[in-house]
Amino acid sequence: MGPETLESLQTEAIEEILEAYPAKAKKNRAKHLGVDTPEGVKGSCDTTRSNKQTVPGVMSQRGCAYAGSKGVVWGPIKDMIHISHGPIGCGQYSRGGRRNYYIGTTGVDTFVTMNFSTDFNEKDIVFGGDKKLKKALEEIDDLFPLNNGVSIQSECPIGLIGDDIQAVAKMHKKETGHQTVAVSCEGFRGVSQSLGHHIANDMIRDHVMPDTSHRKDFESTPYDVAIIGDYNIGGDAWSTRILLEEMGLRVIAQWSGDATYKELAIAPKAKLNLLHCYRSMNYISRHMEQEFGIPWLEYNFFGPSKTTESLRKIASCFDEKIQEQTEKVIAKYTAMTDAVIAKYKPMLEGKKVMLYVGGLRPRHVIGAYEDLGMEVIGTGYEFGHGDDYKRTKEDLKRSTLIYDDANEYELEEFVKKLRPDLVAAGVKEKYVFQKMGLPFRQMHSWDYSGPYHGYDAFAIFAKDMDLAMNSPVWDHTTAPWEKEEIGA
Amino acid sequence: MQDIDNIVNGQKLFLKPEYQEVLKNKKEFEGNAGSVNPEKVSEIQKWTESWEYREKNLAREAITVNPAKACQPLGAVMVGLGFENTMPYVHGSHGCVAYFRTYFTRHFKEPTPCVSDSMSESAAVFGGLANMKDGLRNCNALYKPDMIAVSTTCMAEVIGDDLNAFITGARENAEGELDNIEIPYAHTPSFVGSHITGYDNMMKSTLEQLNPTRAERVVDEERINIIPGFEPYLGSLKEIKNISKMFSDKIVMIGDHEEQWDTGAGEYKLYAGGTKIEDAKTAINANATISLQKYSSIATAKTIKNKWKQTFETCNPIGLSGTDAFVMKLSELTGKEVPEELKNQRAKLVDAMQDSYPYMHGKKIAIWGDPDFLLGLVSFLVEMGSIPTHIVCHNAPRKGWQADMEAILAKSNRADECNIWPNKDLWALRSLLFTEPVDFMIGNVYGKELYRDTKIPLIRIGFPIFDRHHLHRYSMSGYEGGINLLTWITNGILDQLDEETKDIAETDYFFDSVR
Predict the structure, then answer these.
(1) Contacts for A82 with CB less than 8 Å, ≥ 6 apart
(2) CB–CB of A56 and B159 under 8 A?
(3) What are the tens digits of pLDDT across the range A431-485?
(4) Looking at residue B312, what is its pLDDT?
(5) Which residue of B has its CA nearest to A85?
(6) A250 burial type by CB count under 10 A (0-12 exposed, 13-18 middle, 19+ buried)
(7) Backbone angles phi, psi at A438, to 5 degrees
(8) What is the pLDDT of residues A148-185, one digit of tens each?
């Protein structure tokens, strides 16, 4: 498909989609949809409206502030207990689904995949739940003595009934000396999970950063770095960490995949913060820069091109010894990743991909697809902000549909119109497109495979994309009696 | 590094020595007890397995750990999806709906349509009327439903939004666009009951609001309604319909979500199957209604019995006697004899039970799940001579359930070895399993961690099950469902027997090819 045809098809698709909406919703949605091109002076990436209220009554793929705080930022901190404070549902639905891998004895010294809830009933709503929370904190310390802190993650009713969870946390901390953080991340706050990330970061800033207990005796080296915003989905942070260590750096903290409380507390001792998910953790990186003078660097470990580029960028912050070592690391892996490309590119080249994810992936994974010769023709964020879209522009290689807070109706129509060869999005979308006979990969959970970060992980990514695209199962979608006879 | 000829994923990648080195290095910075003091971890771990810990654990009053229940709106969404061309609509934040859709999608491996009106801070202050006005119109324009089934979240309930007034307001505001759409609604606060309460509330409200008043009732002597309850096994719905058809064409399932979560490849359609709205609107005219889940239909029963003055029956067609009772009830209500085909099915189930009983007999089993699921499964375990040692029902209703369960256990000659644990969570069960171990567990995906910790084999039956495929397609109801239960449980036990006898020249003298 020529570039002009692609662009006009994309523009047409947007126009058709908007027609279905009532006037008010149409006006709103028009500002969130557009097309951008690498050459575009001011394309959709510069102008797309984002981080705004979702149109009511549609199937949005967005989550809530609680999901952002508990599910993303706090939840993966493994040696703390995170209480879902409020009714039973939120904790249950967010349990164990994000694949934040960790090593530890669950229920004894690590707690990530468990669900702690204050299980509100009507009485708690009417009379307030502070007493129950206080008691819950005591029971937790009694039954789980090796927890290194507790966070209280508010569900919707807490803010609405006006419970003072901050006071309860403060009192518990004073009485026991045990770190206790109350996070007011009620689901109705903000427009998506994004505000939850920000609120969660603020609480780390206010409660964890001032805790110098672990920092006092910590012996720094000039090569100390912290991984920020890698949630270790399927082991991503580990496949990241190995490269940094091979470069000669010392990773002193992993925020917040396979993280411990101590790692959060010693991060201000790092010489450089390495930020992978900009959306969820830029706030705390900026704070550490201001407060402790630690520079931060965004990097992208999806696909060999971006990984190599990022490794050099990281190395440039250090001395020649590190830079030389980094070149050796790159050389060591290049042969392998070249072999991966040689093996899989012939089967994937020219295939069109549509992405729809959250966080950093709508732009970060583009390079990995390009390395395999695949073309991304549409991308968008569930909860991105303006700066995410501006950052996306650099990664566009061709005319690309840009959709912010797309709902299921829009995605379905885009896919029907543009007929990509692969859709890469979340579980709620997965079966919709597979029913149409389209290969699909979940880009939140790596479809229970992974990791996808770093060089070794790229081999897995390539293998998984080939598996998705070239499985014989897609050929079975149409029954033989419905297939047109060849030559007829 | 990856070997290009044998690329492995994280499962094996992290076992390579270089990664083991990375993980070892990391401990230097972790500072949690496991990295600084493995002996302490081991000591506490052993303590969590003790009677002392069990007493503390069971005495918990405030914190729930690893629950076996979810919240009301989840059940309400299931009801909505049981009707033809119906969009479930949750009045509240879209975060909840993202969770409901994900939860169901992971269980059924199917799309789950549901919208919300995305209430946020402004709605918290001013109420959600504005969201409802736009939301219903947008939902109608995009998804063209015949019915929109509205339920609430805890947020909408705490601020006290009045659905009746809001929906009336939204209709008036919609310039006629919503005139031909049915919009039943129910208040489903997440802080009351569990997902089965939400199922009940939505079912009751839908039936009340769609049907005329009793004065206009035109009784159809032959018609019978069947309400399935919160049923995660689609095959069960199919089988119940098959059995019903053998008695009469006038038996109608109300809230039939079988097809919605079981559609074929080729194209995607938003809605599939479901009870016809016309049938839902005439439910009052039936001679009788049978609910298959007593505790998922407490409020619905009141409406049908007291307001509609209709015969209301509950049957729990899981296992042999549960299915017998259901079949006899149909026979009684339709005045027809039990058909040969069903007699034959029953005989086959009994035959199968007699073939396999030695493996299930005397086995101690821990089981958890929803109240009606447990009544059915425990009944089957007792029929097979198993000992349901720990029965955990986290959302056990206060009235009646325990007595019903005791009546089932009374049929067992090992009843004194069976324990009912209402309103306990799975962390409590963990203590029970360590202090009073069982041979097998039956339950949902959350039993996986109990399996890891206690090594007691888990047979997956229940909701949700995320980590195994296609179990939900089968039936656990009716005689054929009984054969499925028997197959799953017996073969689970045989798999374990093989596992325990597979060590060469040590235990494999019992590694038999014939069982």
Answers:
(1) A70, A74, A75, A111, A116, A150, A151, A153
(2) no
(3) 999 999 999 999 999 999 999 999 999 999 999 999 999 999 999 999 999 887 6
(4) 98
(5) B63
(6) middle
(7) -100, 130
(8) 999 999 999 999 999 999 999 999 999 999 999 999 99
CA-CA distances (angstroms) from residue B479 to B250, B378, B491? Answer: 22, 16, 18
Question: Which positions ≥6 away from B232 have C-beta within 8 Å?
Answer: B107, B462, B463, B464, B472
Q: How far apart are CA A25 and CA B134, in angstroms?
A: 8
Instruction: Please list, in sequence order, all residues whose beta carbon lies within 8 angstroms of the beta carbon of residue B332, skipping any fewer than 6 positions away.
Output: none
Q: Quick check: A414 and A344 in contact, CB under 8 A?
A: no
* Secondary structure (3-state) at B388: strand
- Chain-centroid distance of CA A293 in Å reads 26
CA distances A473 to B187, B298, B343, Å, are 44, 45, 40
Instruction: Flag whether pLDDT at A259 surpasses 60.
Output: yes
Q: Which two tokens stand for residue A482?
A: 């419905």
- Asked whether the beta carbons of A374 and A462 are under 8 A apart, the reply is no
Residues B112-137: what's their mean pLDDT? 96
The percent of residues in chain A predicted with pLDDT above 90, rounded, is 96
Q: State if pTM tops 0.90.
A: yes
Interface test with B, best of A53, A92, A212 (most B CBs within 10 A): A92
Chain A CB contacts of B97 under 8 Å are 59-60
> Is A172 in the active site?
no
Question: How sure is the predictor about A40, in pLDDT bands with cuts at 50, 70 and 90?
Answer: confident
Say if residues B115 and B142 touch (Cβ distance below 8 Å).
no
Provide the pLDDT confidence category of residue A486 given band limits of 50, 70 and 90. Answer: low
Q: Report the distance separating Cα B328 and Cα B335, nearest Å.
A: 10
Could you report the predicted ipTM of this complex, rounded to two decimals?
0.96
Band the pLDDT of A488: cuts 50, 70, 90: very low
The phi and psi torsions of A92 (rounded to 5 degrees) equal: -70, -45
Instruction: Tell me which chain A residues have a C-beta less than 8 angstroms from the C-beta of B135.
Output: 56-57
Tokens 């990022």, located at residue: A310
- B156 vs B174: CA distance, rounded Å: 22
Q: Which whole-number Å values give the CA distances from A354 to A42, A92, A179, A421, A439, in the listed order?
A: 22, 31, 44, 8, 11
How distant, in Å, are the alpha carbons of A39, A360, A422 from that of A392?
Answer: 13, 9, 20
Which residue type sits at A29?
R
Beta bridge partners of A180: A150
| Helices (H), ranges, A316-407 | 320-348, 361-364, 366-371, 386-393
Q: Inter-chain contact A116–B63, Cβ cutoff 8 Å?
A: yes
Rg over alpha carbons for chain A, rounded to the nearest Å, is 23
Residues in A closer than 8 angstroms to B29, CB to CB, are 251-253, 260, 262-263, 266
**B509, burial (CB in 10 Å: exposed 0-12, middle 13-18, buried 19+):** exposed
Write the pLDDT tens digit of every residue in B337-389. 999 999 999 999 999 999 999 999 999 999 999 999 999 999 999 999 999 99
Q: Three-class SS string for B137-187?
A: HHHHHHHCCCEEEEEECHHHHHHCCCHHHHHHHHHHHCCCCCCCCECCEEC
